[in-house]
Write a structure and sequence with these properties.
CATH architecture of the largest domain: 3-Layer(aba) Sandwich
Low-confidence stretches: none
Shape: elongated
Distance between the termini: 37 Å
Oligomer: single chain
Number of domains: 2
Radius of gyration: 22 Å
Strand order of the largest sheet: 3-2-1-4-5
Structural class: alpha/beta
CATH topology of the largest domain: Rossmann fold
Strand content: 15-25%
Order of helices and strands: HHHEHEHHEHEHE
């Protein structure tokens, strides 16, 4: 019996008699247990790319509230690299990878320093892969995923959700924050 249940039992012990126990038994599946009320979040996955423009102060507050360590991830899309290499040649593909990785390092450093200024611990990862599948697979190792609504490709309107972000939010079983 959790803290909340024992508190309710003491509060209403003599008020409704056995009626409370009957209701508790009948509706047990609808009542939240203590474990369900507050989910512990210690690790957060935060994918970044060229379309992610900024992080709100509220998101920093959320990370501080949980005292979570944020893992920033920048993924260079393998499919785009292969298309560039195929059409423009291997040299152009190599140059494209180099430029994307340089941009990724700068973005990761920028966001990481912003997190540190907001007293949030962070670490960074950069690799080539598939944005959808890799984030979905990585998310299983984290308590929460924070995804920008423009992750994976902006549509031009600041209020619309990108197809990649929308698919990730729908497919992942991990707790997700869309910002």
């Amino acid at each position: 019996m959790g803290y909340y249940s024992s508190l309710i039992n003491r509060k209403f012990k003599d008020v409704v008699g056995s009626r409370y126990e009957d209701v508790l038994k009948e509706y047990r599946e609808f009542l939240l247990t203590e474990e369900d009320v507050v989910k512990e979040v210690k690790t957060v996955l935060m994918p970044l790319d060229i379309f992610v423009s900024g992080i709100s102060e509220d998101l920093y507050k959320l990370f501080r509230l949980y005292d979570a360590e944020v893992t920033l991830v920048y993924i260079t899309d393998k499919d785009v690299v292969s298309i560039v290499s195929e059409i423009l040649g291997e040299d152009a593909g190599g140059e494209y990878i180099r430029k994307k990785e340089d941009y990724g390092h700068r973005l990761l450093e920028k966001v990481s320093s912003e997190l540190e200024m907001n007293e949030v611990r962070s670490k960074t990862k950069l690799f080539s892969g598939h944005k959808w599948d890799d984030i979905e697979n990585l998310s299983e190792k984290y308590d929460m995923v924070a995804i920008s609504k423009s992750y994976g490709g902006g549509r031009g309107d600041d209020n619309e959700i990108s197809p990649v972000a929308q698919r990730l939010v729908q497919q992942m079983s991990t707790l997700t924050v869309l910002y």
